[in-house]
Fold this sequence. Notes:
Two copies of one chain form a homodimer.
Chain A: H1 7-11, E1 15-18, E2 27-32, H2 45-57, E3 65-73, E4 81-91, E5 95-105, E6 111-122, E7 130-131, E8 159-165, E9 181-187, H3 195-201, H4 208-212, E10 219-228, H5 232-238, E11 243-248, E12 251-253, E13 256-264, E14 270-280
Helix pairs in contact in A: 2-3
InterPro entries (chains A, B): ACOT8-like_C, Acyl-CoA_hotdog, HotDog_dom_sf, TesB_ACOT8-like_N
Organism (chains A, B): Comamonas serinivorans
Pfam families (chains A, B): 4HBT_3, 4HBT_3C
Amino acid sequence: MTATSHPLDEAVVLTLSQGPDPQGGTVIWQGQTHPGYANMVGPYGGITAAQAVQSVLQHPQLLGVPVALTINYAAALAYGPFTIHTRPVRTNRSTQHWTIEFVQNDDAGQPQTVITGTAMTAVRRDTYSSVDHPLPPVPSASTLATRRVKNAVEWLNRYDQRLVDGDIHTAWDGSEHDSQSTVWMSDEPPRPLDFVGLTGLADVFFPRIWRRRALRVPAGTVSMTVYYHADAAKLAATGSAHILGRARMHAAFNGYCDQSAVLWAPDGEVLATTHQLVYYKE
Amino acid sequence: MTATSHPLDEAVVLTLSQGPDPQGGTVIWQGQTHPGYANMVGPYGGITAAQAVQSVLQHPQLLGVPVALTINYAAALAYGPFTIHTRPVRTNRSTQHWTIEFVQNDDAGQPQTVITGTAMTAVRRDTYSSVDHPLPPVPSASTLATRRVKNAVEWLNRYDQRLVDGDIHTAWDGSEHDSQSTVWMSDEPPRPLDFVGLTGLADVFFPRIWRRRALRVPAGTVSMTVYYHADAAKLAATGSAHILGRARMHAAFNGYCDQSAVLWAPDGEVLATTHQLVYYKE
């Protein structure tokens, strides 16, 4: 690590602790939370997902590139060290399926699972591709101001967000609104896009329940899925440009609401679609 | 099993084989594919997902009701018996996180993982609920004819589908179209809705890539996520009425495309949102 390394690259440093296990191929990685991505309680969920995908990307038996990732936030990750248990469960000719578990000791020193997840990687072949959900007509990122949040949690400083529509409410009066937000976003400082960076960006949106009903209730992601519609070359072509994200919810029911988002490169290519289930109180 | 039992209820019969393991709580269930839900190769993916959720619902340590499920189709499930390894990885005060694995012997008699998955269950509390994606204006199910498919794979006969828009193409000429389909759907014969039935219905849509581009290329779901926006009472209130599903894709890229769908009760309540990643060839 040097003084000039990007905080995201620091955050996803994983050290080989054990493996690959000769039977199942499990690798145990040692990781740690990064103060630059601190949220209110524990780390920003997007960085945890980025660490999960990194644990797959750095596995010596990796086949292909990420196409799907699901991360479940089973318990609050505490600041400090953790291990990631990353297992290639099934390897076919051109696809590979993974299980992922983050383990952290509890107050009694007992190891506990705090994150569960699955991932799929695949060797992509050049074939038919198309976008059926075009980039909406929006002003370009360069014409919009960076969103400044007063007393922001630390991770918000790691992203440059330029709101197109659906900003967070200023009057918390319980009034109802549509849940959509559209935002140009990039790492801050800028960083060339890759699978780790894209995964972090997939969780940038503030809780949809705060848009839907103007009440700042406790809320947190309990499960997140990312579908990747890009290979390394397509991500590299985006470079450190802002990408456009549009997120909305469909339903809130008795404590849980969903979120769906599309992430576009500025040229209109869809880079990822991503979905969440979010807990909310009240 | 009696002669009058519903094929879905037959398909999700799981027999306790082992457990719960006193350490981790893993239960090993014995299940089997059902000829009534046969697809072209192996069983219909929705029934596999229904069996996965059933393995959680019948676990003696279950807390709450399903709120999220992710199933990865790591390899083709062969017709015949399999085991499901269902583990409550983390139990909190009102939430529980699960891992799920389907295991089947390969030709050499070696056990292989064919399905991986995670689920989350939760005790719901009566609180704020709302729909931010209303049921679209469509004719009621009773005014539409049941869709008949010639030479249909067997599982299609287990669902009554009444197409509103976005039917499968009749001319496979490679022309491009929007990927949306809207359909009223129910089990056939009718069956009161529950979590198992809703999970099966989440996968009913034909591959979006066949709508997007009128070419009937090989395609199959590799990962499916269901977010449940209902409790048992809300599902029971829907009874055996048709529910409305609307599905679309956002992007296809080099062999994989996504699918997102919303499932509504006829009264406009959102019952589930569901997402897939689908492999396609050519």
